[in-house]
């Protein structure tokens, strides 16, 4: 075997070792959500003040930082150096898309909110499709159509199950976001929370979940149903989770310990320094490297939070208002983040089986 071929094989083994560590970390953190289910079922809903804690923590822990390495991931995934040009591209993307969408919140807050839910559905779904392929080895998602269906299912879990199970809290949070810009406008969303709409969503989305898991079961090799079983267990687990844990708490924990953690592991795997550390199981080294990379633009994200807070017509004063302001900040930052992650998907062949 040539020296190149030996190096490639060693590379492949190392990458597989890194993905195994990522799989273990993400599954371990996922079981935190199980704890939240058990606590809620046994002890009832935690007090409202406590429900805000994970979202508040996500400002500095996992949540906001997960997108703060967007300026580094594309060149790293390509094996290219980070250049002034690549930085300017991501900077320009954030400036253009972010400010256009921020303007949209002022001009048409109801439409901006609906777009936020749709973008989150797509983005959280795309993140899970990557994790299913790279961490779980989901060979049952072998066609692009099956991956698209998995995207809708995985993204629909956090965005649609709370709508079906907790319409009042959903409407309340929607009202605070829209109300930051136009207190009278939130009434336009009311029909979305009516029982017939929720029933239709439950039937439609439930059918998609059944279709996705059913087709996957048919495609999974009979000798290796493991990845399908993980997919099915995660899907059912997340349905139970979002149907029982109150949504502000449920989404706060999910954002940190599911979506952001999985994406952070993905960014570590494309980074030579953090990736090598993960392969050796040196998770602390990988975390320190990530924290250093993400710190400056996490602070940048906080500036966006302050800027939007100063610009909204009514100064946010209550905890729900601050949460609304934070979610609008996330919305504005997420749109360009989705473009970066979609580029990453392309480089990593997530949509080209
Ligand atoms: C908190 C919360 C909601 C919305 C949260 C959203 C939409 C979060 C999006 C986060 C993103 C896009 C993070 C980036 O990866 C709902 C569903 C209205 C229900 C009530 C609680
Ligand atoms: Fe993300």
From TrEMBL:
Choose any GO biological process term that the UniProt entry carries and state it: carotene catabolic process
The protein's annotated catalytic reaction(s) are:
all-trans-beta-carotene + O2 = 2 all-trans-retinal
Keywords attached to this entry: Cell membrane, Dioxygenase, Iron, Membrane, Metal-binding, Monooxygenase, Oxidoreductase, Transmembrane, Transmembrane helix
Q: Where does Fe cation bind?
A: 66, 123, 259, 263
Cross-referenced InterPro entries: Blh_diox
Q: What is its EC number?
A: 1.13.11.63
Q: Which GO terms describe its molecular function?
A: beta-carotene 15,15'-dioxygenase activity; carotenoid dioxygenase activity; iron ion binding; monooxygenase activity
Topologically, how does it sit relative to the membrane?
Multi-pass membrane protein
Instruction: State its location(s).
Output: Cell membrane
Matching entries from HAMAP family are given as: Beta_carotene_diox
Please state what the protein is called: Probable beta-carotene 15,15'-dioxygenase
